[in-house]
Design goal:
This protein has 23 helices and no strands. The longest helix has 17 residues, at 169-185. It is 67% helix and 0% strand. Helix 2 runs antiparallel to helix 4 (49-64) and helix 8 (143-158) runs antiparallel to helix 10 (169-185). With 374 residues, the protein is an all-alpha fold.
């Protein structure tokens, strides 16, 4: 801590070194060190006061080796092992100063990231931002402190109605992403099975998400990027259905079907065919790119569905998008399909009254003529 610039720690190190140089009793030095951490990091060390006192007592007895009834003092093997494990897990495997409740340390950083990081659905947080959080804060946390802090951040971002939480949602989201990655990489995935974590996720309900698109999109990004969180959400079938239906009603999000129903009875292509709201020609290229590798996808069937979906009112943009795609993939369609498409095309005024109609038809006729000559 002193090396990293902590002034209090630096002063304490100098005082301790001076005490050792003056041959001060080890027990007094020990008390000085323990007292420093209890005074300056009480939230963390209060959970270990009994362990530390027991450890000091054991060390004192072992150091003096007084003979009592012809036997030497030997610490209880089981307790000694548990103390060593506790020391490693909670002290030696994390960097000081130790963090018990992350949010109390990072409120300023949360606000800074909220101002610096503009969130939008699907945004990936830069690696340098996540790495900075992991190095500066998460490396100083134990299993228990990560568990407690993760619960706090989920609560603040997805459950709280506090205005400050909403204003700083992007900052909270950055920390949640960094923490989720860190927990998984550290091998602490059991945190996601802890009762306190399952309980806080269970409090995320439809009312929390219905009127808050940012909160909704952040949750979708988390559950589609981290399968372990998706498994938690799946415990609430009503919530999962609400999220899935809302996400998959957008043709641009059809690629997320596999996250919600990885082993469902329907394929993504069948879901598309069963939901007319997804059959939007404006997004024909995006939909095709999502479905083209599905085992039951048929491009001839697909193009018929899309031409029939061009609106009969305010459909110029839809017709333009359809024709761009149709011309690009023209050679992939059967003759019967082309005939049916053109029949539907000429029935729709939104297709034939477009400014691009003559040019499109001329181009198609040239392709037809070229094919017939072959």
């Amino acid at each position: 801590m002193a090396i990293e610039g902590d002034t209090k720690a630096k002063n304490m190190v100098e005082e301790i070194n001076s005490m050792i140089k003056d041959d001060e009793k080890y027990s007094i030095v020990e008390n000085k060190i323990v007292g420093y951490f209890i005074e300056n990091h009480e939230l963390y060390f209060k959970d270990f006061k009994e362990d530390i006192n027991y450890l000091k007592d054991c060390r004192n007895k072992c150091a003096h080796l007084k003979v009592d009834d012809n036997t030497l003092y030997v610490p209880n093997d089981y307790q000694a092992r548990m103390l060593i494990c506790s020391m490693y897990d909670n002290i030696l495997s994390v960097k000081a100063p130790f963090i018990l409740d992350l949010f109390s340390f990072v409120e300023t950083d949360v606000e800074s990231y909220a101002n610096a990081v503009f969130y939008y659905p699907g945004r990936e947080i830069e690696e340098n931002i996540k790495n900075n959080i992991k190095k500066k804060y998460l490396s100083r946390m134990t299993y228990n402190s990560l568990c407690k802090s993760y619960k706090t951040f989920i609560k603040l971002n997805f459950i709280s109605d506090d205005v400050e939480c909403r204003n700083n949602a992007s900052g909270l989201y950055v920390f949640i992403i960094a923490m989720t990655e860190f927990i998984i990489k550290k091998g602490h995935s059991e945190i996601f099975k802890e009762e306190s974590i399952l309980e806080i996720f269970s409090r995320i309900n439809i009312d929390n998400l219905k009127d808050d698109n940012i909160k909704f999109s952040m949750l979708v990004d988390i559950i589609t990027n981290f399968p372990v969180i998706m498994e938690i959400i799946k415990m609430d079938n009503e919530l999962l259905t609400f999220i899935a239906d809302k996400v998959l009603s957008d043709p641009r999000e059809l690629g997320k079907y596999k996250y919600f129903y990885p082993s469902g009875e329907k394929t993504a292509n069948q879901w598309f065919k069963d939901n007319s709201s997804l059959q939007d020609p404006c997004y024909i290229k995006d939909i095709f790119d999502t479905l083209k590798d599905e085992r039951d996808f048929d491009i001839n069937e697909f193009i018929i569905i899309m031409i029939k979906s061009v609106p009969s009112y305010y459909g110029f943009d839809s017709a333009d998008s359809f024709m761009i795609f149709f011309k690009l993939h023209y050679r992939e369609f059967s003759d019967d399909t082309i005939e049916r498409v053109m029949d539907e095309y000429y029935k729709n005024d939104q297709c034939i009254n477009r400014s691009r109609h003559d040019d499109d038809i001329k181009e198609i006729e040239e392709i037809l003529k070229e094919n017939s000559e072959k």
